């Protein structure tokens, strides 16, 4: 008699296909390269969209709304009758997916199982339960934990230990420095080591197999982020986890790769034929601390010029919309509880900057500043990226924003020691009161294409 087995295939990033007894379910389905505008698959792949359109999934599960996990352009390739199970506290996302035409859209609830044929999928609580979730997947007597890219607190860890034993854990192995690269001249270079809590948590879970999961992308080939954004290599993760968990095996699953898991073994399985590897696949991350960040002017030259209407949109935002909005967005730290002078520098495709100086009063709008008061905050951004944030839902991690890359007067420097980088006025005005801007921009494009 054949032992029950579960086939697990990697799509990309946190995307997987699980198959058992003829039932196929998928997680965080991203079928784009690049995705999230400038996340390039690492190792490189291409997707056969025609073949993806012919695929049948009995259900798709989405862990959270971030655009590298929930992309409407990827979902657009699926049959509209596909049941979608989404973890999100915001109704707007469900409305957008239904407007795309999906007829079975379900809200996931923590610790409430979803049965799909022989599969039982149980959403588990992540550290930031307002944003994301994890998945426990059971089928054929096998037990897999898909941590996606969340962190685990002590309460959830105790619950997960009780849910063991675990046959496999898909563990997000990369700590990304999304905040540090915004202010590289002020951020310490992180050591290329696993966070202190990871090894004790993996020991507590005691899985048979550990898959380094979730991070399989780099930025544009020229980007300095590729040497400063990703501190942990596959080799480092494998070395440390193998040493700490000698009875576990670390298994790397690159895009398209499939394995067949049963109660006693893990064997290769036929790859996904609609995820096509391109070039060298045995690649790894290389980290160089803060990696000598180039000037924003040089980065801006990498992007094409804006059209006249696009340029007008950016200038109108800086001159009118942003100053008016500033008074409605609050800072988390106390740095902006007193008046500050802020300079926003917007760089065009030639590397030339247009500077906007604002006087920021607590609780009030930003007003034009005459330049007589010393600066207390400085922000630089390529014009192409500011436009993309305004009209295309581009996220903070790909905008090449540069914050406080200068030396202020002594008093300001003392105050800045307690300031939060994400209190940046531009960040707050762009992102503090918006949800799903990336998906909303996708939906506008998709509906316009259909029309």
Walk me through this protein's architecture.
The protein is of the alpha/beta class and about 450 residues long. The protein has two domains: about 5-275, 4-Layer Sandwich (Metallo-beta-lactamase, Chain A), CATH 3.60.15; about 295-450, Nonspecific Lipid-transfer Protein, Chain A (2-Layer Sandwich), CATH 3.30.1050. About 25% of the residues lie in helices and about 25% in strands. It contains 13 helices and 24 strands. It is globular, with a radius of gyration of 23 Å. The chain starts with a strand and ends with a helix. The relative contact order is 0.13.
In CATH, the architecture of the largest domain is 4-Layer Sandwich
Globular, elongated, flat, extended or rod-shaped: what is the shape? globular
Helix-strand makeup class: alpha/beta
Oligomer: single chain
Strand content: 15-25%
Query: Looking at CATH, which topology of the largest domain would you report?
Result: Metallo-beta-lactamase, Chain A
- Level of helix content? 10-25%
Please provide the count of β strands: 24
Major sheet: order of its strands? 8-7-6-3-2-1-17-18
Could you say how many structural domains there are in total? 2
Cα Rg: 23 Å
Average of the residue pLDDT scores: 95
InterPro entries: RibonucZ/Hydroxyglut_hydro
GO molecular function: hydrolase activity
Protein name: MBL fold metallo-hydrolase
Keywords: Hydrolase
